[in-house]
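Bench log, entry 3. Co-assembly request; chain sequences pasted below exactly as received.
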Amino acid sequence: MEDQEIVELYWNRSEDAIFATSVKYGAYLRTVANHILHNEADAEECVNDTYMKAWESIPPNRPRRFLAYLGSITRNLSLNRLKQRAVQKRGGGELELLISEVEEFSLSVPGPESQAEEAAVLKIINEYLRSQPQPKRRIFLKRYWSMMGVREIAEEYGMTESKVSSILYRMRNELKRQLEQEEIFL
Amino acid sequence: MKGEKMLNLMGQVDESLIEEAMTAQPTRRKLGRTVWAVAIAAVLVLSLTVGAAAAGAFGPIGDLFAPLFGASESQAAIIERLGQPIGVSDTQGGVTVTAEAAINDGKNLVVLYSVTKDDGSALVSEGTERFDQLAWNAGMDGDTLHFAFSQREPNDPLGDFDYTPGDSTARIIQKFTAEAGMPDRFTGYLSDLEYWCDGTDGYTEVHRIASGGEKKDDFWWFDFPIVPAKEAVTIQAQDAELHVSPLALEAQFTVQGRKELANQQVLALRLKDGRVLDYSSVTDDNGIRSPMSRAQYDEQQDTTLFTLGGVFDEVIPLEEMDCVIFNGTAYPVK
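Structure output for the full assembly:
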């Protein structure tokens, strides 16, 4: 079934919408959640919550890129759950590592931030990623959007872990320079 | 902006980029022909030559090496301590290669080169499909240095690279091991810079970037003094001498007569975090030994000196090492 047909089911309030979503994208979404949570039960709950969020938000939304829309919901739900676990001292190490990595470029942007200022930062990130060769921007997003471990990315791309780390290291530095050049003083 | 906020913001990057990343088909590196091509090239090169954290945070040498040889603070501190800037360039055929910096531990030498086209264009076009790796030839004047062996790809002594198609600069590192003590000068060359792609028929496609010329005089040559450095531990094992440094692990032992290396010699470094770097020597069905080893026959003494081991893929602080395992016995690294 085409994405827009599934979205249409949501708009028509047909419960087939959730079934169609799970058939087409359930595996993808479980992968996204599992990369973040490393726990199949938690991942399954986040995917189920994703369907509910999609049901609640379509309409009024009519996503043009349905997979990315769903993926973003799953990512946010999984990230929130990971933060809860970190508070409860259950497996927050990977989250701390990720945060320390993004701080290498995020700390060059002073805070606090307004929505407009966040949008400016987002625009720079988007432009930077678009300027990168495809394999590099995919690796960057696998790490900082999908929150995959370096080892998982290395296995998926047939690279060494040190190679993936070096690509990410260089990209973080380049993005830091881009953010500094734009002089976003918030 | 705090990291947690940025991590949330990363969730809002353009949906087209997310979709691309989510649906990307991984490009796995193929084994088989490619690996053997490298292995055979390695043997040929050897047979010809053995006879003959945040940018700016680590200091100039640490920053140069960080993407290829270790990006933690403790690694960068070692690189700064053992490193030296070089800055010697050679240009051939519109391509400039610069020996940027080197690090050595008194026995092993790692040289970092940058490669750029003089017209500023990409060495390999962005979007080149099935890009696998950069490849090059290297050689030295004299026989005081050998190519060092790598544990990551034990049949590939060619070094490592940091490059993605579309980039205008490649950084490559070449690892050497001294026959005895580190010489006071390095004189060596690079040539035949190529990129390899996985062929659709399972064979490797080889594309020339620049040759550096047909004659040896036309290669990219580098001549620079080596600043002496030393940071290694020697462990006297029962029947071998084990050398371990932040750059390399090596076992040397002597047997009577002119011998081939026994089929399996167990050599490994166990780190305190539980990782084991295995340099055990095994010969496969094709007769390729991995990792490679050297054997030197002394006619006068009628003995054969074996050397096995390799230069690491990243700097490893000595305090992170637990023990060296050689033929069933663990020797603590103190």
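The two ends of chain A are 45 Å apart (CA to CA). Chain A is about 75% helix and 0% strand.
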